[in-house]
Design goal:
The complex is a heterodimer.
Chain A (H helix, E strand, L loop, with lengths): L22 H8 L3 E6 L5 E2 L14 E6 L2 E10 L15 E6 L5 E6 L13 E9 L6 E8 L3
Antiparallel strand pairs in A: 1-2, 1-3, 4-5, 4-7, 5-6, 7-8
Chain B lengths: L9 E8 L3 E2 L7 H16 L8 E5 L6 H7 L7 E5 L7 H14 L5 E8 L30 H16 L3 H15 L14 H6 L2 E4 L2 E2 L7 E11 H4 L7 E9 L20 H11 L8 E4 L4 H10 L8 H4 L2 H4 L13 H5 L5 H12 L11 E5 L7 E7 L5
Helix pairs in contact in B: 5-9
Classes of the chains: A mainly beta, B alpha+beta.
InterPro entries (chain B): Thiolase, Thiolase-like, Thiolase_C_2
Protein name (chain B): Thiolase C-terminal domain-containing protein
Chain lengths: 149, 394
């Protein structure tokens, strides 16, 4: 796991709102930790954040750090720039990453790879924290790269 | 207890549509387009528009029912209904909601419609700049995942990879719509046929399964159908087109946030399709024609699979152009050009085409069509689909 890197996508894309329900997640990423919702009622993880546990209906949802590793569940490589900031910066690769050790929740991020690199469903990946320190407020995105070995 | 069903209880008595325009080309305001389509449906049904007593729509249609009722001088508004969900997921649901209102006695004569002049509002495939990404989007937009195509692409990647389905299967879906549009004077892509070479040469929107021609266009226009009780339909000018089955919704947590639906690589029709066929007491083999909403061709594949029209194991053999054409195809599909090539009227144009096929008045007519399925917008949630038939299908 690394905390320094070049950014995957250019500046100017929408920045994440870090308030409300998801606040603990964003606070975790600033510290290089992957923190997601875990129900104190039934002990299961869920993602994205919600006010209630969809399994046991407890409102007592805590947050817990999970190992920032997973495997690629699916992927896409956009070529069409869907936002002005992306003009001249396509293609890039988006992955859907499953966390098998956290009740198989899935997270979306970019895969650190070249524009023609083959992407393999099932490949093991690890998180790379991408800080945006100059933003106001600062935030950190969670990106992914294929795990060595 | 009497059977709870809409099968044979209501009919589509009238259809209407405006001229279909390319994005931003409509000379008329969106609300005026809605009025034109509604008046056309009433005229087709031989019903005074003032006798309409309800409106049902979907996709957050901006032409709201109460305003339509006021503009048209409706005598009494008895049903005013908006179906949750974006895009065309609710196309069949709007007809079903109108049908439920009519069958239950809440209303007598309900218009289901869609009006859309996207050119007068925001652009699909281009996100607005500036604002912070809220809610679900906070976990998506900063990674460059913003457009409808991107929201669905990873479902398609996974399903096609798992099942070994080739991109050529999607090419056939696109080419069938374009082929049928060439005879249709109201199709926006008339005069612009799609060859395999043109498809293969088109630019990538998203690898690995979205070339330009796999994606819907944007259009301006409106479409409407008039729904009445079956008994009433018998007294009207056209051969009644009966609703045989309809369903809407989604399977377990299909709307789970941040791409976490447990059954993710899906168009979300698995329970909906079963409910529709159960109500209709029919199955895919009973259908003479299929209208399958194309937002993206991969979604059509998923939709056809989940409604039982296509077996994933044989999809590569089944989804070839000649099999999808009115002339000689085993599964004629999107016979007026569909969303891709007639008009992206969020599927309402497909309901109109289903009615024409059953009246025997379609431009690309399937001989003796008695049962037509309309599969609404796939991969969103809720989704909806319906099946309609002639009197012979009752």
């Amino acid at each position: 796991m690394s905390t320094t890197m070049n950014r995957v996508l250019p500046e100017g894309l929408p920045v994440p709102a870090q308030d409300g329900l998801a606040k603990p997640y964003w606070e975790g990423t600033r510290q290089g930790r992957l923190v997601i919702q875990k129900c104190r009622g039934c002990g299961k993880y869920q993602w994205g954040p919600e006010w209630i546990c969809h399994r046991c209906h407890s409102f007592d949802l805590g947050w817990e750090e999970v190992a920032p590793k997973g495997r690629i569940w699916s992927w896409q490589r956009p070529h069409h720039p869907v936002h002005g900031a992306l003009n001249g910066h396509t293609p890039y690769t988006i992955v859907l990453v499953e966390l098998p050790h956290a009740d198989s929740v899935r997270m979306v991020g970019n895969l650190l790879c070249g524009p023609t690199d083959k992407v393999v469903i099932g490949a093991k990946v690890e998180a790379v924290f991408e800080p945006h320190d100059e933003a106001d407020p600062p935030y950190t995105l969670v990106q992914w790269r294929v795990q060595e070995g | 207890m009497t059977e709870r069903t809409l099968r044979g209880k209501v009919a589509i008595a009238g259809i209407g549509e405006t001229t279909y325009y390319k994005h931003g080309q409509s000379p008329d305001a969106e609300f005026k387009l809605a009025l034109q389509a509604i008046l056309a449906a009433c005229k087709d049904a031989g019903i005074d528009p003032r006798d309409v007593d309800g409106f049902a729509s979907y996709g957050d249609d901006r032409s709201d029912g109460p305003r339509l009722a006021a503009a048209l001088g409706i005598k009494e508004l008895r049903f005013s209904n908006m179906h949750w969900g974006g895009g065309g997921g609710g196309v069949a649901a709007s007809v079903a909601n109108a049908a439920a209102a009519v069958h239950s006695g809440m209303a007598n004569c309900v218009i289901a419609f869609r009006s859309l002049a996207q050119g007068q509002f925001a652009r699909y495939g281009r996100s607005r700049t500036g604002a912070a990404a809220m809610g679900d989007d906070a976990f998506l937009a900063p990674y460059g995942l913003m457009s409808p195509a991107q929201r669905f692409a990873m479902k398609i990647t996974r399903f096609m990879t798992d099942n070994g389905i080739r991109h050529e299967a999607l090419r056939a879906i696109a080419m069938a719509s374009y082929h049928h549009a060439q005879n249709n004077p109201n199709a926006v892509m008339r005069g612009r046929p799609l060859t395999a070479e043109k498809y293969e040469a088109s630019r990538w929107i998203i690898e690995p399964f979205h070339r330009l021609f796999d994606c819907c266009q944007e259009n301006d226009g409106a479409g409407a159908v008039l729904v009445v009780p079956a008994d009433h339909a018998k007294d009207l000018p056209h051969k009644p087109v009966y609703l045989l089955g309809a369903a809407q919704g989604g399977h377990h947590r299909s709307a789970a946030p941040v791409h976490n639906a447990p059954d993710y690589a899906s168009a979300h029709f698995k329970t909906v399709a079963k409910n529709m066929w159960d109500m209709a007491r029919l199955g895919p083999k009973d259908c003479d024609v299929v209208q399958a909403y194309e937002n993206f061709t991969g979604g059509v594949l998923l939709s056809l699979v989940e409604h039982g029209f296509v077996d994933p194991k044989t999809a590569n053999e089944q989804l070839v152009l000649e099999n999808l054409l009115v002339s000689g195809g085993k599964m004629p599909m999107n016979t007026s050009g569909g969303n891709l090539a007639e008009c992206y009227m969020h599927g309402l144009e497909m309901v109109n085409e289903a009615v024409r096929q059953l009246r025997g008045t379609a431009i690309n007519q399937v001989a003796g069509a008695n049962v037509v399925a309309v599969l609404g917008g796939p991969m969103v949630t809720p989704v909806s689909s319906l099946v309609v038939g002639t009197e012979a299908a009752l």
